[in-house]
Amino acid sequence: MRYPLVPLVNDLTFPLLLFWFCLPFGLLLILLIIWLHLLLKEGKFYGQMDKCFCIKALSISFPFTALC
Prior knowledge:
Elements (H helix, E strand, L loop, with lengths): L13 H54 L1
């Protein structure tokens, strides 16, 4: 026998196979979106921290440079 007696893909199994083949790609896409969102939030947070640090560093160093 060359061919199986029961076809693997028919009207009943096609939606199930499509779901199981697409599920890993859908999960990877969702994880990628969450990861990129976290990276963007982290970049904004550190950008604000750098600005605050520079302002504090300038305000601390300014009086000492005036004395020199």
